[in-house]
Amino acid sequence: MPISDRNAPVLTAAEMRAAEAAVIAGGVPEYALMQRAGKAAAEIIWRAGAKRETLVLCGPGNNGGDGYVIAKALRDYGVPVKVAALADPVTESARQARAEWGGAVEGFFHVETHFAQVVDALFGTGLTRGLEGEVAARLVQLVEASERSYAIDIPSGISTDDGMPLSAVPHFDLCIALGQWKRAHMLRPATGHWRRKHLCDIGIPAPDATLFRLERPRLSPPADDAHKYTRGLVAAVAGEMPGASALAAEAAARGGAGYVRLIGVQSVNRTSHAIVRASMKNEAALSDPRIRALLIGPGLGRGEAGAERLGQALVHSHPVVLDADALWHLAEGAMAALPENAILTPHAGEFAQIFANLSGLDISGTVIELAVTAAQSSGAVVVLKGPTTVVAGPDGRAVVADAAPSWLSTAGTGDVLAGLCAARLAVTGDPFRAAAEAVWLHGEAARLAGPAFLADDLLPYIPAAIAACL
Ligand SMILES: NC(=O)C1=CN([C@@H]2O[C@H](COP(=O)(O)OP(=O)(O)OC[C@H]3O[C@@H](n4cnc5c(N)ncnc54)[C@H](OP(=O)(O)O)[C@@H]3O)[C@@H](O)[C@H]2O)[C@@H](O)CC1
Ligand SMILES: Nc1ncnc2c1ncn2[C@@H]1O[C@H](COP(=O)(O)OP(=O)(O)O)[C@@H](O)[C@H]1O
Ligand SMILES: [K+]
């Protein structure tokens, strides 16, 4: 179940085949799907490249079949097209597509090298191993010699499920995904092999998908009769480095919480006066039943004092966001004692440290498998942060954020994200939705902030990011 109908499914090769098989079983021939796919891709190439001379490279499977359909459709648009095949078609649909193309088919190694446009339809989701060295080198040569290049479904040589290149893979201008997004469309290093990507909807639904692309969420303004407590009280616990918790607290205040209380901090420069301070000694400040999200970790410290504060904070079983040093303190026992609505926000280093230590947990695979396994084993929502951020829930659902600006790689941005998670948890009461909303707002604030910002500079852009979702 997607978190909203805006979130497009992201499939493995096997899931894509199953989705395709279901449509075929429903009475649509495979060849009709190939026609839809090839014509949709050809229309995009035609719009981008008009009548530029185009070389279509066709492989033996249905990716190659798409290539023949593209070549015919481009020819029908009046585009000068040549086709070069690596091997004869081996599937019935690809054979049919080649017959309908009907034109000359040149040898992959013998066709001339310089074309204005090159279309890679050698291999798609059926790739089982890297391309042979000379095939990969020739593909790189042809693509690099062109002005524009298009990868059909997936660049040939990229493994669909983990986004890894299995042989040398060139860089394309556009990757045209067919049917549904596949994992490689979201994962590094594959995402570095095209400038843009586009999804062609060819009428293949994926009702069983559990992984989705993170898209702009829909948010609501506070209810007409809202007051600060109904909007959500966030309690942020400070520690050794009060600046980090102040940054997180301010992000929480701007991220939609009605009231933010910063606990256990003596003095912090430049924190908004709207953020109310309280002492750790004030029992009621932490036990307050109106707290809808507790945030702890940024600046907490890895010493005994930090561990003690974490223990004190978790006693009350508030819905919680655990970040940074709080994750460092999280031991196996503490994991079992997490409240039901918990969000953990590790980066890769913190992730490895926490989950590698959990007994019997096999953590391997892409960031998607890592986050999903960790969420299922901890019972918490896991936000595995990085250039590609994955939000995973204990029910197996996950969203992947593939478009955050790399300017986020600066100190303190994680504190801002933790604050946003707390705000959205306080507002929604749903940790999975909250984490997904927070990751999107964080990326959008970064986009709006432009280049070379400091983590603090994200704060004034959070309201504009929220405005984009109303
Ligand atoms: N899903 C959908 O909804 C739709 C999918 N469509 C399209 O179908 C594509 C998937 O087609 P596909 O399954 O036929 O696989 P494809 O990628 O063409 O290659 C398989 C062939 O290559 C071979 N082979 C593999 N690796 C190799 C290597 N390194 N070097 C050499 N050979 C290698 C492999 O044989 P093998 O040697 O492994 O036995 C087999 O012969 C998909 O990406 C999309 O474009 C659309 O048409 C319609 C809607
Ligand atoms: N190259 C990148 N592209 C996009 N986002 C990134 C990149 N590097 C880091 N980020 C994001 O920036 C934030 C960094 O958080 P974190 O590692 O906790 O840093 P800190 O502890 O300094 O606050 C995360 O949200 C992460 O997803
Ligand atoms: K391809």
From TrEMBL:
PROSITE patterns: YJEF_C_3 (PS51383), YJEF_N (PS51385). Its cofactor is K(+); Mg(2+). Its EC number is 4.2.1.136, 5.1.99.6. Keywords: ATP-binding, Isomerase, Lyase, Metal-binding, Multifunctional enzyme, NAD, NADP, Nucleotide-binding, Potassium. Residues 211-469 form the YjeF C-terminal domain. (6S)-NADPHX binds at residues 62-66, 124-130, 153, 244, 299, 347, 415. In the C-terminal section; belongs to the NnrD/CARKD family. NCBIfam families: yjeF_cterm, yjeF_nterm. This is Bifunctional NAD(P)H-hydrate repair enzyme.
